Amino acid sequence: MKAEPHFVDNHAGFRLAMTRYVRDDEPRGHPVLVVPGYGMNSFIFGFHPKGPSLVESLVARGLEVWTVDLRGQGRSIRGTGKSRYHLGDLAVDDVGAAIRHALAHTKTRATELDLVGCSLGAALAFAHVACVPSAPVHAIVSMAGLVTWKELHPVVKLAFGSARLAGLVRFTNTRRFARLALPVLVKVAPSLLSIYLNQASTDLSQSARLVQTVEDPHPVINREIAEWIRRGDLVVRGVNVSAALASMRYPFMCVVAAHDGIVMPATARHAYDVIGSAEKELLVVGDDELKIAHGDLFLCHGAEQRVFAPIADFLARHAPEGEATRQPGRSSS
Predict the structure, then answer these.
(1) Per-residue pLDDT tens over the stretch 151-164
(2) N or C terminus: fewer CB in 10 A for the chain?
(3) H helix runs in 132-204, sequence order
(4) In sequence order, what DSSP letters do the residues of 272-294 get, joined into one string?
């Protein structure tokens, strides 16, 4: 597997970091763009403590995979861009810049790509296609993602109970704090940690590497998430993304973590229930013996078999011959 770094101008004063992963042979199907969620970057897509990562699993199936760090994430570089930005900037401008770059530099012959959105990244993916109906997107995969809040864990409700307070609080050095706190929580308060990671399901011995995916929360995004929670529906740049789901026709796969405390199962599967796609699949991961929470989807024991292979199979099934001539799978008229 080759990893090729790219930097992309988002035309808003940031250079977004992207990486293309591909084998030596010609990739098949559509390029796959993986979009990270909130308070994280793309590191976790290429990391697994004991087995193949998400990226490695997809590339092993012959797919060309792109990861992106949006503004404020990972290796992305702030130039003249403002430190204050909104969900709409991430969803429309950053995701759009990443899509254009991936398609301009793909080794496939495809003219559209597949989006894999992780947590908030799924909301950004849906917001992008709702705001940009002509976006060259073929299929969408949501990994513990959401569009409409249907069920809320008490911890999340407490954290985002006040939009005003959420927008005032600034966090710095979150990665350093996570590096110190994670081993302590594993030993002292595993039940608190379990809304995100389960020690019995995921090997947490490499916590120093794992926390490389952690980023500082952004106060403006905090406020917008709090307003979104209160409203229920996702609204981006005046577009009600939740309402737009019913008219979407993209092949869609919804991956739900059965014991997720960040995006609870009822919230995660709601997009599957309401989207207008004729071709859609639901994958619920975890049971009473192997509890799978939010982060466990990427890191759990047997993640390749339980999560990554089904996603790769779904993408392969929806990559017919002659895909370069297909029209985008956007909303119906």
Answers:
(1) 999 999 999 999 99
(2) C
(3) 154-159, 163-168, 174-188, 190-193
(4) HHH---SSEEEEEE--SSS---T
